[in-house]
Amino acid sequence: MAPRKQDAGTRSQDTRLIRAGQALEPLARTVGPPIQKGSTVLLPNAASLYDDANYLTYGRQGLAAQTALQDALAELEHAQGVTLYPSGVAALSGALLAVLKAGDEILVTDVAYKPTRRFCDHMLKRFGVRPTYFDPRTPPETLVGEASPATRLILMESPGSLSFEMQDMARVAELARARDILTVADNTWSAGYLMKPLDHGIDIALQALTKYVGGHSDVFMGSAAAAEPKLVRALSDGVLHMGWAVPGEDAYQMLRGLRTLPTRLARHGQSGLTIAAWLREHPMVAEVLHPALPGARGHDLWKRDYIGACGLFGFILKPGPKAAVDAFLDELELFGLGFSWGGFESLAIACDHQLTTRKLLRQYEGPLIRLHIGLEDPADLIADLARGLDVYAARRG
Ligand SMILES: Cc1ncc(COP(=O)(O)O)c(C=O)c1O
Question: Are residues 216 and 135 located together in one domain of the fold?
Answer without folding.
Answer: yes
